[in-house]
Amino acid sequence: MYQFQYFRPKSLDEARKLYENNGDAKFLAGGQTLIPTLKQRLAQPTALIDLGGIAMSGIKVAGGVVTIGAGTKHFDVATSADVKGTIPALAHLAGHIGDPAVRHMGTLGGSIANNDPAADYPAAALGLGATIKTTSRSINADDFFTGMFETALEEGEIVTEVSFPVPEKAAYMKFPNPASRYAMVGVFVAKTKTGVRVAVTGAASSVFRESAMEAALAKSFTPDAVAGIKVSPANMNGDLHGTAEYRAHLVTVMAKRAVAAAIA
After folding, report:
1. Would you list the domain boundaries of the chain?
2. 5-49 has which CATH code?
3. Is 23 or 212 the better-scoring residue by pLDDT?
4. Contact at 8 Å (CB) between 256 and 226?
């Protein structure tokens, strides 16, 4: 690692002031991406501002919405009776992120703010039409994820909580990389009061909605409705783990499985 200063503020106001006064500072949530990046000297922040000392964890259900604090660990989401009882697909997703060590350290806010192309939570946020609340505003999930490791967050803006509308039916299925457990392709399908949403992660440079599948499932929410939909590989990722064509095929396979799980 390169040398940096370390701060552990007790409030969001203190965190923002530290950010403003310390040049190229970075916020630290669970550290599951940032710490390895620092170890490999791929980042050189002047200061690290640890958000772990700020009370931003917790889960509450009210008015058909599940609101989860940004500092809530994946393990806590996966094992929450409230989440299991309202959006079991979200609990399932959280329970299959990485390994036990990652799930006990990684946070919802950190995952969404990082927007790794193969992360799971962005698919849940986009698939459920979540609202991301920050220190200065509320952002719809459709407007939040803007590109590879890029979001609508502005400099110094911190995610504080995420609100997930409770769907009528939902499920998440992914084809994980056997080593990292990141999604080579993950598909979150949700039938909501406002329509059907299908969010895909792992396949491209950022999470995205699959409109053709949404239209087909709006007419018939069955696996057969998406079975014949072929996704174009034009903008898909291709690497040593799988070609763009392979990932495009997996989108349809995982979507079929997700729909089947949602109606089971």
Report:
1. 5-49, 59-263
2. 3.30.43.10
3. 212
4. yes
For the domain covering 59-263, report its CATH number: 3.30.465.10
Query: Are the CB atoms for 207 and 201 separated by under 8 Å?
Result: yes
Give pLDDT, residue 62.
Answer: 98
Is the model's pLDDT at 1 over the cut of 90?
no
Give the mean model confidence (pLDDT) for residues 146-155: 96
Residues with Cβ within 8 Å of 86's Cβ and at least 6 positions away in sequence, in order, are 61, 66, 166
CA distance 150 to 112: 10
CA-based nearest residue to 263, from 180, 167, 195? 167
Confidence of residue 180 (pLDDT cuts 50, 70, 90): confident
Tokens 């969404």 belong to 112
Strand partners, 196: 191
Question: How many residues in total does the chain contain?
Answer: 264
DSSP-derived secondary structure for the chain: ----EEE--SSHHHHHHHHHTSSSEEEESS-TTHHHHHHTT----SEEEEGGGS----EEEETTEEEEETT-BHHHHHH-HHHHHH-HHHHHHHTTSS-HHHHHH-BHHHHHHHT-TT-SHHHHHHHHT-EEEESS-EEEHHHHEEETTEESPPTT--EEEEEEEPPSEEEEEEEE-TTT--EEEEEEEEEETTEEEEEEESSSSS-EE-HHHHHHHHH--SHHHHHTPPPP-TT---BTTB-HHHHHHHHHHHHHHHHHHHH-
Contacts with 52 (C-beta within 8 Å, 6 or more apart), sequence order: 8, 28, 29, 71
Residue 19: Cβ within 10 Å count = 20
